[in-house]
Structures are given as C-alpha cells and as structure tokens.
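FW: tagging you since you asked about this chain on Friday. Here's the raw sequence from the shared folder, copied in full. Didn't touch anything.
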Amino acid sequence: MVEIKKMRSKIFDCITFFDNNYMFDFRYNVLKDYVDYFIVCESIFDHRGKPKEKNFIRKDKYDFNKVKYFILEKPFPKNTTIWENQAIQRKFLLESTSFANDEDYIFFSDPDEIPKPELLKNFHLEKKYGIFMQKCFNFKFNLFNKYESPWEGTRVCKKKNLKSIDFMRQKVKTKNLKYSFIRFDKEKSIQIFNDAGWHFNNILSSEEISLKLKTFAHTRFADEKYSSPEVIEKKIEKKIDLFERGHIYKKVDIDDTFPEYLKKNLDKFNKFIIN
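HL: got it, structure written out here
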C-alpha cells in the first residue's frame, strides 16, 4: 500500500504597502526563514485617492521566489472614504493569494506588525482564526508603549476560512471571546497567541510620520496641530503620544525578547534605537 504524504501548509505573509521599504526590509530579514511567500500589495493611489509613486523596492538580496509584488493600478471610486479605499486594497491583496491552497495559512499584518518567527516554525492553528498579541513600541525599536500592549496585531487563518482581510481585522477580536455563546454574530473560534511578536509603530522620521498622518489618519489628526514635522519631532524627543492622550513611553534595553535580527544588527538600526 502506497503511503500518501500530507502536504505541508505553506505560510503566506501578506501586507499592504505604502512607502516604508525600511520596515519591509526589516520584516523580510526577521521572517524569511519561516515564510514561504511574502505578498506585497501597493496601490498607485493613496487612501485619499491621490496619485502616488510606486515605492516598493525589490532588492537584489530578496528571494524573488518568495517576494510576490502586486500593483493595484485602478483608481479608487469617487466619494469613498479612506477606510473604504483601504478595504478595496485589502480585497485586491486577498485576490493576490489565489495560488494558495485551502490548507495554507494566510497571515495578515500591518507592515510594522511582526509576528514572532519562532511561532511560525511547524505552525498549527487549532481554531479557525488566530490573533498574535504583540508588544507595542513607538518611534524607536526600544521605546516601549505599555498603554497599547499587548497589541492585537497579526491575524491568521487557513485560506479556506478566509472571508476577507477586513473581516479578519475588524471582526476577529479578543473581546469576541467574552460574549455569550448565543451571540452567533460574533466570531469565537479564535486562538490567542500571547507574547507573539512586536508592533514597531512609527519607526520613521518626523517628516515620514507627518506624511503618514496626512495620508491615512482621521481628518482631525491630519491637521498641522498634530501632523507638523516640528510638532512630531518635539513629541518624539519627549517620548510622548502623538495624539495627546497622556501616554509617556519608556526606553527599555534590547535583550533576548527582541528579534534576533535586530540584536545582530544594532549598528544598522542605530538611528532608531535609544542608547
């Protein structure tokens, strides 16, 4: 009798991309030994509908068999919100995983949400969906944000259970597990992965953060009061929250709880490390 070997479920690491090649390069090097495919989707329009350049750089050192780059060239519909346009780009991202098998794992993260690579080795999901609870850092790799930690970051499910990327982000939440079993409108088949990575938020220059706020943020935070590079730079220096919520961030040492790639390349990332 011939033994039929079960195929290994592949791991697809999926992100929408705007302009942060620095963070993608970091992501790639942290995860490359554990991910089968990096799916990168970029639009030539920002989420406000304004034309933008193609910014993703496919570096020669990247394994092009792993890194799959897709460009959304169609303009967003008129009179849509930034959130609706975000959903359109995410839908395009989902379509870009068409070559995945039903049993393959689709991971979706914002580009600065990095799942802990050790958890991806021999990865197995016991529920329909998974949420990676991640430590949150702001402005610098080692400027800890206790107020938003743990962060509900990376989501995962098998391709056969993937309704939409927006469903995973908007409907698959830890709070669902607190609802009564009779709340059929709340997805509860969720596995929680604790201490499962890092959310390196706004590891950018003040000018880049300013552009990000003006492009993505709620209209209120696009105002110069919040988005001016000078205002942002002062808040970074003071280690305080961009949105005036009273958050004060804390410098921590880079130790064994950080990605191995970061620890081995401190000089390379010195610009975004507080000594």
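FW: The two ends are 63 Å apart (CA to CA).
HL: agreed, and The CA atoms of residues 171 and 185 lie 10 Å apart.
FW: great, closing this out.
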